[in-house]
Amino acid sequence: MYRLSPLLLISFAQAQLPPGLVTADALKAHVSFLASDALEGRNSPSKGLDIAAEYIASRFRALGLKPLGDDGYFQTADWTRSQVNPEGFQLTLEASGKKYEIPYSQVILEPAPKTALAGVTMTRLTLEQASQASDDTLRGQALLINLPPLDRPVMQRYAALRRRLLKLAPTAVVLIAEGQAPPSRGGATLRSVADTPLLPAVIIRQPELASLTEAKLTLNLAPALETPAKMRNVAALLEGEDLRDQAVLVSAHYDHLGLATSGPDTVYNGANDNASGVAGVLEVAAALAKLPAKPRRSVLFLTFFAEEKGLLGARHYTLHPLLPLAQTVANLNFEQLGRTDSSEGPNLDMVNLTGFDFSNLKDTLAAAGALTGVRLVKNEKSSDAFFGASDNQPFADRCVVAHTASVTYEFPDYHQLGDEWRKLDYDNMAKVVRMLGTGVLLLANQQTRPAYDAENSATANYRNCR
Ligand SMILES: [Zn+2]
């Protein structure tokens, strides 16, 4: 006869975090410090980022959690920062007997390898064509590509193409912005030492050139200026009871955009994005650490650097996992937990989940919601579209069931200077974090592991890792 083990009885009794363990004031304390002007927007890398990492480690230390990094709670990434080098820049397009000399002021460069091309025939493509082109069409070519007016799909398509091009090593990529050019990334990129090479890519801010149908290219780029960049993920473990070799991963990125170059307010505080997610991780950690009995599985608390630079800290972790990814049963990543003034209306007492129907993790989280009075909702427009927009994606790419939970997708101060700590709704946030912590506890205690939906074609790549 099936008999409930005493451990299971304990876990049922503790199905939810007791009220009062997660408080609005504790959350406010974390967010107001991390998003203060003193941390200068937590750019990757920066002093402010390092201070934020020290703060997070200090909180883990206070809770007596097990350090998992190479240096206490820190997982160190010794990377390189590559900066645009404008020296000797020259860009000329020759078409139909006309020469177009493009000055440095009219381009956006990314850090490039040394490039010296003279009168090279270009392969002309639309962004659509380039995205669908075979590897051979792109490899080793000088490409001339139109960049349509930027919206989210165009940004995503370009980002995906750029990732491919880094591998295919074209001779040069010249993009012509048909509308507003993308914002400059400050002319620097971050690379791990063993990372892919730099791309000789130039965006031209002259829409009138978008009608060129063919061109020859002369391009001179000086090699990027490189300096060491040390950044750190922060990792702590709450060891489980009988299934301690398996772990539920609770994560958030702690970086943001840094400083603006001019104006009365220069700090991108990143209070909702994503000091709020970090505060959520810290208070879930605090609540679980205070429970009288351990959860069955271990819980790994992890905060990432350089999400805003392209999910770099999370990707670094998946390449250098501190616990086996195959034993990491789920990743619940936190973003934007504090603001309730969504662009689509107020979001009170509710939690959104990206890739809502990709796995059955939603069932566990919905159960946590039922226990704590918070609705788990699917936003039809944004749920799938935002799946790849945060640190859960690198884990999904390695076949870990991974989702991002947030209160809002888009909110008025998103990536603006006004994302400040006083604008968050901490009472609502406390309810939401208690719900999420309860979800983590259920995931840690439930008999089965969550799984991707085998019927959903969107998850095919996440189910077939070797
Ligand atoms: Zn974010």
Question: Brief overview, please?
Answer:
By secondary structure, the chain is of the alpha/beta class.
Could you list some keywords that capture this structure?
alpha/beta, binds zinc ion, Glucose Oxidase, domain 1, Aminopeptidase, single chain
Describe what you observe in this structure.
The structure is a single chain. The chain is α/β, with parallel strands linked by helices and 466 residues long. The chain has two domains: 6-81 and 229-462, Zn peptidases (Aminopeptidase); 85-223, Glucose Oxidase, domain 1 (3-Layer(bba) Sandwich). Helix content is 27%, strand content 26%. It has helices at residues 6-13, 24-34, 47-62, 127-132, 135-138, 152-168, 271-290, 312-319, 361-372, 392-397, 426-445; strands at 66-67, 74-83, 90-95, 98-101, 107-109, 115-121, 123-126, 142-147, 172-177, 188-192, 201-204, 216-221, 225-238, 243-253, 297-304, 328-334, 341-342, 345-346, 350-353, 375-377, 402-406. The strands form four sheets. Strands 1, 2, 10, 13, 14, 15, 16, 19, 20 and 21 form a ten-stranded mixed sheet that branches. The chain has a five-stranded mixed sheet with strand order 5-11-9-8-7. The chain has a four-stranded antiparallel sheet with strand order 4-3-12-6, with no helix packed on it. α2 crosses α7 (271-290), α7 packs across α11 (426-445) and α9 (361-372) packs across α11 (426-445). The protein is elongated. Bound molecules: zinc ion. The site of zinc ion has 5 residues, from α7.
